[in-house]
């Protein structure tokens, strides 16, 4: 009777097991990399919009305050997007014929709002309220990134649960004076200054991190 | 050479190539495939429409899924105990029983594990039970028996696979050498992992096998304790009792030995293995069944006594509900099916006769299912608040899933019976050899 297996038959399963271990390890590492990559979190990916609105120009160069357009941010869960009339406060006077702004003029003429595409998206099972964050002095830049440096709007931070919880479990270094909440550049604040202010702000606002990561705070 | 003249141990390795009861096998396999189809349909309905298709809701939010989970796991434990405990104590009568008992364990653990996963509501997120670094920075609650249970069952599944497979490697090699078709030679050859029967192989194999056995025995206790504590750790009258881990352990192996009795008698008859599964083996199963039955009975008595002795109004009310409430049928059904036919096993004549033994096994299997149902439902349907009392009825899809799950158990088990050696051939040989040598000495 001929042999069933060749002399190398023992080697192949061993090689297979070795390759299997390598493959499983690689899959775990690649998977871990993937879920944190911009491909999944959408960080830095520009979203197409009906009008190529530049925050770099309006918020950065012209210095228009965030709240001029996102008027609900201090008092409502949603920051809100500006009505076409808000755009027209300026654009009825300047760049009135710019082809880029044709959709804005059309929106005003027809009385139909512009349909912007959402950039900062939270899942529906996560409860989020802008007003409490703003009134306690979490600056816009903390979650939305350097909007004043974005020619086209993109997501500044990965809105993962870990991102929310990192701050909820240790809010102090992220807090700023509420009256400067829309300020974008905080490079002149050293870590010591931020820690010192954060400690006092935590006390003043009665912020207790031990309760900020209860499930029911965000999942209501 | 005629079949009768053949060495009975040799016959085991001939079964896959020349199956003695092909028609009966095909009928059973057809039925189990139909059940398997029912399982797929029930799971499909569950995934599409959600757990709302089941009857469980507040207050009885566990329902048939968890009843079956506990029941299937319990059945599995007997296989491990027969195999590992009797191996470690050196009982040679184990050799005719261990292989199919381990296969029974393996498939029932798989069935058991599927139930809580399907019960999750979002089964595709079951891996959240595992601790792994994630973008939610959420970990399992290690203080909860639910997390212990996940680990216990997972480790038990891996342990059962390892134990079954390791034990079968020398037999796979024998099958490789005896198979005539090229496909079977290669398939068994791959499964045998290059086993050539060298002294070195045997030494390593013995070491590994005994090591896994020594790990498997405490695992059984760990698994029963972890799912018993699922019940006992909560402040639920009728559940919050220190007896539960021991009670569940006894009930588990009791139901497991009952299923071993059914399978042993069926295989013995269907495959003509009367010379290997002897009256002495049936006697052993009968004795184990009787002994574990009495341990389980002690659990019933201790549970009732603890409730009465506690003087706690809620505990006594739950006991009262069990005896006379809406689910009294499950309590008295369990008592009757578990303990009345069992008394016949006092007689050796009953223990060694196959059909009565299998029928008593069947009675205990059903009785233990009723017990799991009784324990779960009576603990929940009348909770502390009268306003949250409610009756539970399993829905059609719960029953369908249960029936389907029997197919998930039977289909692979029948494939095992058809294509693999159902007994440990080399261990039977070894035991026979040692017996003959002892005779010469």
From TrEMBL, chain A:
SUPFAM superfamilies in the record: Multiheme cytochromes
Keywords for this protein: Membrane, Transmembrane, Transmembrane helix
Entry annotated with the keyword Coiled coil: no
InterPro entries: Multihaem_cyt_sf
Positions of transmembrane segments: 15-35
Protein name: Cytochrome c3 family protein
Automatic annotation (TrEMBL), chain B:
Domain of life, per lineage: Bacteria
Annotated transmembrane regions: 24-49, 69-88, 100-126, 146-166, 211-234, 246-267, 288-309, 329-347, 359-381, 401-426
Annotated localization: Cell membrane
Signal peptide, first to last residue: none
Keywords on record: Cell membrane, Membrane, Transmembrane, Transmembrane helix
One annotated Gene Ontology cellular component of this protein: plasma membrane
Keyword Transport attributed: no
Membrane topology, record value: Multi-pass membrane protein
Protein family according to the UniProt entry: Belongs to the NrfD family.
Protein name: Hydrogenase
Organism: Amaricoccus solimangrovi
């Amino acid at each position: 009777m001929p042999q069933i297996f060749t002399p190398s038959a023992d080697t192949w399963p061993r090689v297979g097991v070795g390759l299997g271990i390598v493959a499983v390890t690689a899959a775990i590492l690649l998977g871990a990399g993937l879920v944190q990559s911009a491909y999944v979190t959408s960080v830095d990916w520009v979203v197409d919009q009906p009008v190529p609105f530049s925050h770099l120009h309006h918020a950065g160069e012209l210095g228009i305050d965030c709240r001029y357009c996102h008027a609900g941010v201090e008092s409502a869960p949603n920051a809100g997007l500006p009505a076409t009339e808000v755009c027209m406060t300026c654009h009825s006077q300047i760049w009135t014929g710019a082809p880029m702004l044709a959709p804005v003029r059309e929106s005003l003429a027809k009385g139909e709002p512009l349909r912007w595409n959402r950039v900062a998206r939270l899942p529906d099972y996560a409860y989020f309220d802008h007003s409490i964050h703003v009134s306690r002095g979490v600056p816009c830049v903390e979650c939305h990134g350097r909007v004043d440096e974005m020619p086209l709007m993109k997501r500044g931070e990965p809105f993962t649960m870990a991102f929310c919880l990192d701050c909820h479990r240790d809010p102090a270094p992220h807090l700023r004076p509420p009256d400067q909440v829309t300020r974008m550049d905080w490079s002149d604040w050293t870590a010591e200054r931020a820690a010192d202010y954060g400690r006092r702000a935590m006390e003043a606002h009665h912020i207790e991190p031990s309760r900020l990561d209860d499930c029911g705070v965000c999942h209501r | 050479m005629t079949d009768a003249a053949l060495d009975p141990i040799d016959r085991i390795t001939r079964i896959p190539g020349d199956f003695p009861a092909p028609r009966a096998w095909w009928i059973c396999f057809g039925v189990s495939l139909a059940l398997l189809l029912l399982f797929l349909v029930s799971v499909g309905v569950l995934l599409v429409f959600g757990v709302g298709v089941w009857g469980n809701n507040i207050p009885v939010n566990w329902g048939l899924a968890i009843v079956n989970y506990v029941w299937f796991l319990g059945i599995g434990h007997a296989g491990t105990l027969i195999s590992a405990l009797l191996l470690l104590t050196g009982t040679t009568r184990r050799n005719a029983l261990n292989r199919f008992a381990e296969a029974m364990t393996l498939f029932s653990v798989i069935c058991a594990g599927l139930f809580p996963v399907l019960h999750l509501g979002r089964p595709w997120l079951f891996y959240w039970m595992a601790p792994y670094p994630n973008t939610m920075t959420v970990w399992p609650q290690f203080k909860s028996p639910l997390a212990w249970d996940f680990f216990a069952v997972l480790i038990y599944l891996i342990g059962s696979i390892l134990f079954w497979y390791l034990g079968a490697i020398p037999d796979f090699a024998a099958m490789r050498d005896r198979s005539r078709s090229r496909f079977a030679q290669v398939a068994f050859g791959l499964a045998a992992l290059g086993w050539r029967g060298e002294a070195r192989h045997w030494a390593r194999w013995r070491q590994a096998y005994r090591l896994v056995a020594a790990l498997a025995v405490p695992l059984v206790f760990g698994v029963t304790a972890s799912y018993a504590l699922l019940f006992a750790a909560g402040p639920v009258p009728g559940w919050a009792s220190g007896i539960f881990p021991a009670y569940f352990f006894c009930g588990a192996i009791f139901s497991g030995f009952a299923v071993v009795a059914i399978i042993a008698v069926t295989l013995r008859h269907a495959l003509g293995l009367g010379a290997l599964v002897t009256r002495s083996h049936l006697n052993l199963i009968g004795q184990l069944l009787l002994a574990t039955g009495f341990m389980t009975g002690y659990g019933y008595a201790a549970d009732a006594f603890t409730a009465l002795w506690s003087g706690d109004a809620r505990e006594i009310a739950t006991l009262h509900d069990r005896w006379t409430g809406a689910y009294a049928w499950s309590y008295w059904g369990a008592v009757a099916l578990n303990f009345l036919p069992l008394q016949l096993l006092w007689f050796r004549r009953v223990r060694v006769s196959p059909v009565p033994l299998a029928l008593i096994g069947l009675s205990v299997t059903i009785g233990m299912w009723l017990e799991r149902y009784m324990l779960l439902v009576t603990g929940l349907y009348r909770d502390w608040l009268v306003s949250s009392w409610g009756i539970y009825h399993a829905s059609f899809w719960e029953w369908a899933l249960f029936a389907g799950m029997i197919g998930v158990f039977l289909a692979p088990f029948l494939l095992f019976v058809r294509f693999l050696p159902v007994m440990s051939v080399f261990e039977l040989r070894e035991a026979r050899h040692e017996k003959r040598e002892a005779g010469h000495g």
